[in-house]
Amino acid sequence: MVSPVARTVVPFGPVTQEAPSNLADNLDTAGQTILGLLHRAAGMAEENSKHAMEVAQRLSQQLQDAKERIRDLESEVQHYQERAERADEWMAQISSEIQQRLLSGPAPQRDRRNGPPHFLSRL
Predict the structure, then answer these.
(1) Fewer CB atoms inside 10 Å of the end CB: C or N, the chain?
(2) What is the SS3 assignment for 47?
(3) Structural domain containing residue 86
C-alpha cells in the first residue's frame, strides 16, 4: 500500500532559468503541499491520540472494576475462613466433650424408669 505522503510528493529538481513568477508559483505550491501534509499528519496524530485515550480510559475502568471485585472476593474469603475457624473450634469442643463424657468416664448407668442416660440430658 502506498502511503498518502508518497502520492503528494512535489518534485524538486535543479534550478532552471525560469521566470520569477513561475518560481514563486512552484514555491507556493510546495509550501501549500507541505502545510497540507502537516495538517493531515496532525489530524491523524490527534485521532490516534484520542483513540489511545479512549482505550486507556476503558482499560483503567476495567482495572478499577477488577480491583473492586478482588476486594469483594478477599472479604468473602476472610468471612469463610472465620466461619471455618469457628467450626473447627466447635468441633474441638464437641470432641473434647465426647472424650470426657463417653470415653474416659465410667459407663453411664441407665435406669429405664428415669429415661436416657444422664450425659444425654445435657445435650
Answers:
(1) N
(2) helix
(3) 20-103
Residue 50 lies in a domain: yes
Closest CA to 41 of 64, 73, 8, 15: 8
In a domain, 15, yes or no: no
Q: List, for residues 62-98, the tens digit of each pLDDT value.
A: 999 999 999 999 999 999 999 999 999 999 999 999 8
Residues 6+ apart with CB under 8 A from 34: 10
Look at residue 110 and tell me if it is in a domain: no
Q: What's the helix, strand, coil split of the chain in %, to 5?
A: 75, 0, 25
Which three cell numbers mark 29?
505550491
pLDDT tens digits, 93-103: 999 998 888 87
